[in-house]
């Protein structure tokens, strides 16, 4: 399927920001763990602190997302809001490369995470600007797929610096330089999106757009509650994506806790990216052929099996198996969830609706790390938290099953 210039530029941003996504789930928490352990704390404490701070960063954006989305729906505002938070994210990311105190490290991480997450709200809503409903499953999947493979380039360069330690630099300094590679990659590959993606659907500007945006939030929330298909889907998404995001964001901290060495964890998660590339592309094609809803349900069942396997994990080879298993489903469940939601909503209000989509997703990611943190503090082991994630997947599956098989995508009309 040939992509337009706007579609290519949109996909390329996934390549850009996925480099930062990669280090969030690999080298950043590993480096943080080393900072905390060097201060005399035990591994489970590092897991608990990281889970809490990750939850705080996510909670901030979960609250802001629908507000920012509502404002961005007005003509010309989407790209302005995107650029503002891009700058915030890049400044926070660059600061990670020069910070070695673990408390300061957490503060700049929150700044980077907020900027990165806010950009994703506007980026996701741009999906409706660059393509149509017939191509949306494939384009959404292409974004995730190329993001997985493209993010490996700066990541591998960073890992090479960590392993080789050129010019006699320490492991800590080499790790911080690897952060710099990812952040620069993120910034440079964003340029095509800024040049080629336009806000096609929008609400006309008005002088009171800030106050009007707040009034629209209540109206939109009422629509979501009223339209059962949308309500069931977004509640289901809240639960099942909680488990998905938690597995992604907490993989290295959990692996370190059960005794997997850092090198094996990084290489295994790199393998996840390579596995995810073809299977994300495949997910787009399967979603188009069999329906996104059917495929999402299959992925949920697969993740339940992943949690069962992760609960008993205590061998290095098992972590590699887990990495491959996650790669098979990770891109598919995320991309098809995004494209399915994109078909349900009015295009002119896509930012606002994706803001609510994001708030459900991010509050889910808020609770997931807390579950593992609670398990780490109470039981001195996170594996019981991994097992508890199964409940979230089951609830998500149940709500998806409430959606009628003849669901339509045109029941919401912009006012």
TrEMBL record:
InterPro entries: Atg22-like, ATG22/LtaA_families, MFS_dom, MFS_trans_sf. Pfam families: ATG22 (PF11700). This is MFS transporter, UMF1 family. Residues 1-408 form the Major facilitator superfamily (MFS) profile domain. GO terms for molecular function: transmembrane transporter activity. The lineage of its organism: Bacteria, Bacillati, Bacillota, Clostridia, Eubacteriales. The keyword Transit peptide does not apply. It comes from the Bacteria. It comes from Acetanaerobacterium elongatum. The chain crosses the membrane at residues 12-32, 52-74, 81-98, 104-123, 144-164, 176-194, 229-252, 264-284, 296-313, 353-378, 384-403. PROSITE patterns: MFS. Its main location: membrane. SUPFAM superfamilies: MFS general substrate transporter. GO terms for cellular component: plasma membrane. Keywords: Membrane, Transmembrane, Transmembrane helix, Transport. It is found in: Cell membrane. PANTHER family: AUTOPHAGY-RELATED PROTEIN 22 (PTHR23519:SF1). It is a multi-pass membrane protein. Signal peptide: none annotated.
